[in-house]
Design goal:
The protein contains 7 helices and 8 strands. By secondary structure, it is α+β, with helices and mostly antiparallel strands. The strands form 2 sheets. Strands 5-4-3-8-7-6 form a 6-stranded antiparallel β-sheet. The chain has a two-stranded antiparallel ribbon with strand order 1-2. Strand 1 and strand 2 form a beta hairpin. Helix 2 crosses helix 3 and helix 5 packs antiparallel against helix 7.
């Protein structure tokens, strides 16, 4: 810590990060041990975070991330979209297909940014806000591959006809971006994705990930 930083704020943020990394919550004792501070400090941190709905405690006393985090998270999408647009535009123009950035939203994949090519006679109409299950479509499958550590070929996923008849998709996950699960991909009206497109999608996902770090 330096003179310009707040120790209390730092600890509060560390509490949120610790809770975000667990599915079953943490007790005051567990948080005290992980933070290296006494239980009284943890109680005060949790009480403050609870007032802002950033933390909740269940009947067993375990602390979990609160719903207030969702309100903050909604403001993240515009920032992520803005950072991704240059790479998406270049990808759409290079391959002549609709490019998209997709993020995890609960149990679904949510398209938060979409760019259509300007020079093609036709392309797939794919809109920001479109949702689909994570286990269907290239965008969701790429995210699941990264979640499972299956990142051979940079986690590239290829699909055909899973979300729209006659449409094929290719997507690669965002790797090395803390706190964000997502993918960059393209969707096109074709029986299959050509070999040259896969590596270009991987490159675009890498560019977006670098912009978000």
């Amino acid at each position: 810590m330096t003179a310009e930083t707040s120790q209390t704020l730092d600890r509060g943020l560390r509490v949120l990060k610790l809770l975000a990394d667990t599915d079953h919550g943490l007790t005051v004792t567990e948080l005290s041990h992980k933070l290296g501070v006494n239980r009284t400090v943890v109680y005060r941190l949790l009480a403050t975070l609870e007032q802002h709905a950033l933390v909740r405690r269940d009947l067993g006393g375990r602390a979990r991330v609160g719903l207030g985090v969702l309100r903050l998270g909604r403001q993240v999408h515009p920032l992520v979209r803005e950072a991704a647009l240059p790479a998406l535009r270049a990808l759409a123009e290079d391959v002549g297909a609709t490019a998209h950035l997709t993020l995890v939203d609960g149990t679904e994949a949510l398209a938060v940014a979409v760019v259509e090519p300007t020079w093609t006679d036709y392309h797939v109409a794919y809109r920001a806000g479109f949702r689909h299950p994570l286990d269907r479509g290239a965008a969701g499958r790429a995210i699941l591959k990264a979640r499972q550590g299956r990142i051979q070929d940079a986690g590239l996923a290829l699909t055909h006809g899973e979300l729209e008849a006659g449409a094929s998709g290719a997507a690669a996950p965002l790797l090395g971006v803390s706190g964000i699960e997502g993918s960059v991909g393209v969707v096109m009206l074709a029986d299959a994705v050509s070999e040259r497109i896969g590596p270009r999608v991987v490159d675009a996902a890498r560019e977006v990930a670098e912009a978000l770090r």
